[in-house]
Q: What sequence folds into this?
């Protein structure tokens, strides 16, 4: 299959990660605590095997050798994030040690031919801001814009591609609906407010960044999948429509077009969930939008009408739609996520038809598997054939979408070296390289060689 796929010669091939999941050195280098550091201090038992955010692949110390590994794998781009609390520990004062670290990290990438795409926020709210309500306090929007502006002042000469957020809906729903992120409370109204402030912060950040430099490109990263409904019954269609409004157009229309989906606004109004807005803020949102999109895709969203008819006001999204387990689904049993590579074409189609065929790239795709050590061969290499198959299948549909005119400029796998995953710790591993957390030794998996050769073929093949 792989030899038949065709990608543009200048296509970006890479991997993605984030500062809080890889850097380590959380309590040193002048960094202040983010919400994960603090939550682990307060409730370590919530984290898989009590493995908290201090246990990582120590990229803060080992970035140079990791960048060399990227080079060896033929990667030509990489996405990670900046740690807000490392750069601006109190939100105002620049930490020079952080500037030196990030500048050298980015310069090392550039020197090795790795195009950096740098993200600002990957679920890591500073603790000083979380104490004041995090995304539910509108004050955060100006703090975030200041942080964004500082990043461009300090690194804008090196880094040309920036993204404001990674999966903004995730910190909203995990913090205020599904209890996977601090403060782990259930409050639909607060969730919507946090979402609105996130959108405003995105727009204010873009404005502040563009004021510093015009030679940068600013995008955002969304977890995107078209919503697939169970059937064509009226109830299922309505459930699909609402799931689409709450999960897709909510952030995508606002961050890309600067508008709010009227269907969603009416729904929120009807259920008394609509936050108060200010005309000046709405103008900022309208005028400061993303130029490109990163699409994180792991699994499709399938829905059906809720089993119980809603009486009164909604208190959870599940009052509008429930998850639907498609009988023909193929599962990644470790993560519990459906594998459905065909959706890549539907994503491309959504962007082409509804979002002006704007430039986008696959910013995350990957397969988390538990206990990978059992797949070691006699030379100690993890033979992750399942991951190779997963990538190959997704690339197959992506190459078809590109042939059909999709404006897709790259593909990044999650992730490069196995990384820490929030409450799941190190349970499921995604990397091209495994890591021994005792010694920090990285070992390539079979997929890293497959990817290296695939990229080489795409760049040099006939
Ligand atoms: C994405 C996040 C990443 C990463 C990945 C894998 O949603 O952007 O931070 O964690 O999912 O998911 P998980 O680590 O939950 O298995």
A:
């Amino acid at each position: 299959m792989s030899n038949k796929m065709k990608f543009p010669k200048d296509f970006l091939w890479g991997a993605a990660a984030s500062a809080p999941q890889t850097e380590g050195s959380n309590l040193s280098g002048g960094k202040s605590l983010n919400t994960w550091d603090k939550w682990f201090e307060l409730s370590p038992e919530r984290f898989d095997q009590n493995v908290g955010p201090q246990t990582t692949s120590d990229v803060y110390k080992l970035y140079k050798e990791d960048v060399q590994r990227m080079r060896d794998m033929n990667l030509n781009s990489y996405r990670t994030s900046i740690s807000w609390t490392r750069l601006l520990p109190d939100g105002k004062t620049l930490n020079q040690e952080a500037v030196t670290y990030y500048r050298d990290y980015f310069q090392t990438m550039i020197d090795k031919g790795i195009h950096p795409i740098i993200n600002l926020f990957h679920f890591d709210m500073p603790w000083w801001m979380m104490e004041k309500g995090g995304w539910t306090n509108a004050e955060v929007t100006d703090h975030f814009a200041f942080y964004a502006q500082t990043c461009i002042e300090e690194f804008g000469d090196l880094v040309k591609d920036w993204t404001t957020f990674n999966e903004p809906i995730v910190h909203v729903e995990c913090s205020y609906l599904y209890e996977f992120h601090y403060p782990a409370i259930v409050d639909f109204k607060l969730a919507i407010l946090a979402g609105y402030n996130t959108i405003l912060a995105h727009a204010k950040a873009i404005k502040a960044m563009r004021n510093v430099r015009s030679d940068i490109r600013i995008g955002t990263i969304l977890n995107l999948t078209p919503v697939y409904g169970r059937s064509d019954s009226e109830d299922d269609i309505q459930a699909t429509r609402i799931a689409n409004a709450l999960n897709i157009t909510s952030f995508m229309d606002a961050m890309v077009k600067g508008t709010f989906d009227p269907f969603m606004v009416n729904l929120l109004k009807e259920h008394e969930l609509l936050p108060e807005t200010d005309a000046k803020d709405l103008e900022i949102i309208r005028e400061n939008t993303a130029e490109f999109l990163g699409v994180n895709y792991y699994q499709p969203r399938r829905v059906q009408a809720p089993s119980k008819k809603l009486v009164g006001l909604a208190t959870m999204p599940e009052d509008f739609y429930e998850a639907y387990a498609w009988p023909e689904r193929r599962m990644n049993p470790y993560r519990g996520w459906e594998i459905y590579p065909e959706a890549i074409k539907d994503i491309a189609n959504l962007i082409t038809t509804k979002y002006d065929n704007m430039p986008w790239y696959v910013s995350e795709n990957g397969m988390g598997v538990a206990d990978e050590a059992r797949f070691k061969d006699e030379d100690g290499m993890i033979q992750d054939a399942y991951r190779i198959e997963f990538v190959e299948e997704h690339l197959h549909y992506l190459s078809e979408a590109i042939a059909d005119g999709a404006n897709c400029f790259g593909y990044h796998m999650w992730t490069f070296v196995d990384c820490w995953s929030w409450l799941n710790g190190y349970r499921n591993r995604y990397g091209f390289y495994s890591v021994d957390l005792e010694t920090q030794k990285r070992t390539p998996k079979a997929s890293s060689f497959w990817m290296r050769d695939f990229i080489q073929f795409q760049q040099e093949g006939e």
Remarks:
- DSSP finds 15 helices and 17 strands in the chain.
- The pocket of 6-O-phosphono-beta-D-galactopyranose is lined by residues 18, 21, 166-167, 170, 223, 296, 335, 364, 368, 414, 421, 424, 428 (CB under 6 Å).
